Amino acid sequence: MSLQNIIENWSSYRKGAEQGGHHNYEHLWGMVIDLNKCTGCGACVTACYAENNLAVVGHEKYSRNLGMNWLRIERYWDEPDLGEESVAEYQHHGASFLPMHCQHCSSATCEPVCPVAATYHTPDGLNAQVYNRCVGSRYCSNNCPYRLRYFNFYSYYEESWPAPLHMQLNPDLTVRDKGVMEKCTFCVQRIRTAKDTARRERRKVRDGEFTTACAQTCPTSAMTFGDLLTLHTPGGGVGETEAASLWKKHQVELGKSRQQKQNPELRGYRVFEGLNTDPRVLFLERVREV
Amino acid sequence: MNLEMKRREFLKVMGWTGAGLAVAACDRPSFITSREGRNHVVSYLEPEEFAIPGVGVTYASTCQQCPSACGVNARVREGRVLKLEGNLNSPLNKGKLCAVGQASLQNHYNPDRITKPRVRRDGRLVEIGWDDALALLREKIGPDAGLNGKRFAWMTDTISGHQAVLVDALMESLGSNNHYVYEPINSAVWRAVCRDMLGDENPRLGIEKARVVLSFGADFLSTWGGAVSGSARYAEFRNAPRGVLIAAESKMTQTGANADLWVPVRPGSEGVLALGIANVLASSHGRDLSALPASVRAQIDAHDAAKVAGITGTSEEHIKRIAELLHERSPSLVLAGASAEGHEHGYDSVAAAMTLNLILGNVGRTIESSAGFPFPQLRARSGNGRSVIDFAQALEEKRFDVVFFKGVNPAFTAPAALRLNELLAGGPFKVALTQFEDETTLLADLVLPLYSSLEDWGTHVPSIQPERNFISIQQPVMEPLYPETRGFGDLVLSLLHMRGDKDYAGYEDYYAYLQHAFVALPADVKNSVTKGVGGDAAFWSAVMQQGVLEFNTATPAALVAKPVAFEVQAAAAEGNGYFLLPSANPNLWDGRHANLPWIQELPDTISKAVWDSWAEIHPKTAAKLGDVKTGDVLRIASEHGTLEVRAFVYRGMHPDAIAIPVGQGHTAYGRYAKGRGVNPYAILATAQDRKTGEPAHHMTRVNASVIRRADVTWNNGSGMDRLVVQGGSSTQVGRKLVVTVSADQFERTEGGRA
């Protein structure tokens, strides 16, 4: 996909999600995160650091909100209902944990603002970041309602991997330099490997053949990663994946600006649904005995 | 850092071709000329074993970051280990791994590893060769050293498998039985209660089978009994029909943060709360107490909900609700962990909790007998906290001439009041088998550098076996990074050789010994793996590939519950300051992971703080101390010392308690750990549980005062003076980020309930 191509065919790339999205998708990678199971342990976060060459920035830079964690676990305490003054004396229902990584929106707000098309939509449905095209305008980060883009304000590689820590770096992807935006890629190097292997073996990518680093390590198996293409185009490339069947089960549809669940009690929801970004991460509501 | 040097090292390790892939992509253009590069070219015609450039291979091994012994699969490319995943074959962790397990890589590649033996000369540790180091050891513990074995001691962390066999053999050869197995984070009191009341120290806990789990501070999602296996069981427990989790604690643990109902308990009164729940179970729900000893029945009778509410700070309504849930939804499971154990009457509190299991009929349903592991000599020697107190006592009495340390850092984790550093400094000849320059290593007279867990051989037998008995295999996943480090098994074996031990004379190294030990297993064990195809070599290679060896064992005998008498108390009432809770940190553990940058930068589950310590207090406590806000610096003083630490204010604390997570406050241990945060172990009192002698770590009383206010303005030049946490808002401010629904609704849609 050349820059020229993008410029010439801009309007076809910016087709709305409801008109079928940007591409004739090959895959449509997506995820389901069950908040009934997530315990907030952070195994996914560290797995992501290990897989994706995330820089450790240290205490001082972290204090200036420069942490490079593509995946974070947000922790919220119960609050009074709006309009009420008082809160309970104790946190009787524990905490609310929310793993947040790039939502890989189908109508991503980060994409159209990039002046150099470094942020673009792949035929796999990923919000990709082309590092060597990025000029560091940070418009994308400014436009992301989920705050899931991370900017290299420093050349972190100078200090983050003192020898021999650098030997752990994953050679399947790069280490990013100063001035470049980075973000969750749904472990695109794993996707690439799986697709290449499938092509070599003259078959389609199988569900469960690979998964992202976060989903693979999750001790409670709260995360399910997979291809959602069947939801998007009925009869699409692959059989129904586990992830796709969960979307279906919870009656959340891609490419819809307003969800019309037959059973409104089903737990599936997307964060900031109302912004109409059409995210591809489905959350299943947290459950508490009351 | 000199980038050019870095790149050259890279090339040496990876070979020219592989480096081209990795380096060209990752930083500035390479300055290495093709002439220089030619020196490092690896010929495709003579490939290293399994090293196909660009293609990863996977080796099975065992994680050594905590005593659980989860199986891992290590991805290796161009001779370097890059990533760990859980091993699907392990019946313990079933393909999953925790954050600390992921970070094993940084233990292995840590820039602060010790690479050569060191010896103390003129008060300083200087590097020497292995020949000199072993000669010195021969002088101290060799056959001609004239060492009285009783004057030799060894302190290790939890140890099992064939390493334990070798350590036992060495101790026997020396005529010593002073093996101190020390784990600062343990469940020794729980194990003692299980032994006394169930006849089984490590019963299997069927969290997934329970419909209600009540935890008195047993953090089974992180530090209690194995985080990954606990989490897997928890996930199953949360499937429909969904189990209810109740946590009664003085400080919200990670498990507490996931509870349906979290109730505060005044520190030390967990046993009283258990009695109150038993009282309601008998009086309101007709549960039968007749099997209990009369003294226990009398205590239950004497503790009605109203009285218990007054003592524990748990509301009467909640006590009744907990009893109701436990009564209505069967089977249930009651667990007790560190906060219940850590008092002079810790055993009694845990026994009271276990009595609830008896009353509720959980024994045999959610608490089952551990299948007896067929090889007792390989079983885990599970660590406890008492051993460091006994060890200090022995040092005080000058009973040792030579002591060995492996996998423990008592100079950091023992309460300063034990004066361990002082006793060690003037005392015996100290040998540290270690990877790092931690506080204990700095006191040693001889430092022997070990392989990392990813370079070494080993076998591990988890103390709590899952449904099937198994041994987990640890094998090297890459060549050692440093030629002058050694494997633990190899080292102990060479000491046995030095002692002239005949039983082990025939084994050249630990690998040879392990292979022999496996091949010598009974034929039925081997056949279960090979299905009769192929000989010993096939068996050995299959075991190495799978990473685990499972045993078919007979169904264990059912547990027989045996109530014991106990005397529940509450900790001393008002006055005397706050209780200091040195809470077990899910990630830093007892401080052993403070040198891993990924772990330092992983926000804490509760506070979300990074790279620092903090003191958790309730808003009421904060108000009492003078409108304390998160980030204000508190001075916390016990009679044994003072700490200065930032406050973290939230509603998951009992107002009488201040919790400081352990793990930070290192004075050594490398660039990532040293000089960061505070060490609450340092100011603990040395009280012990009356029945087991375990350290009563949760009953130290402290005073607190504010010494500095946080400054969250940008104008002081050096950044904000605050507690560094991830995220800005502690609530959702009305946005629906995490939506919560009722369990009823969940059961209606996903449990098939109409």
Question: What this model shows, in words?
Answer:
The complex is a heterodimer of chains A (290) and B (754). Chain A has helices at 3-8, 10-13, 43-52, 58-63, 139-143, 157-160, 188-200, 213-217, 229-232, 242-249, and strands spanning 29-34, 72-76, 96-100, 119-121, 127-129, 149-151, 181-183, 223-227, 268-269, 281-284, 286-288. Chain A has 290 residues and is of the alpha+beta class. In chain A, the strands form four sheets. Chain A has a four-stranded mixed beta sheet with strand order 8-1-10-9. In chain A, strands 2-3 form a two-stranded antiparallel ribbon. A two-stranded antiparallel ribbon of chain A has the order 4-5. The N and C termini of chain A lie far apart (53 Å). The mean pLDDT of chain A is 89. Chain B is of the alpha/beta class. Helices cover 31% and strands 17% of the residues of chain B. In chain B, strands 5-4-16-15-14-6-7 form a seven-stranded mixed beta sheet, sandwiched between helices. A six-stranded mixed beta sheet of chain B has the order 21-23-22-25-20-24. In chain B, strands 11-10-9-12 form a four-stranded parallel beta sheet. In chain B, helix 20 links the parallel strand 15 and strand 16 (446-449). The longest helix of chain B has 14 residues, at 161-174. At the A-B interface, helix 3, helix 4, strand 2, strand 3 and helix 6 of A face helix 1, helix 2, strand 3, helix 4 and helix 9 of B. Strand 11 of chain A pairs parallel with strand 26 of chain B.
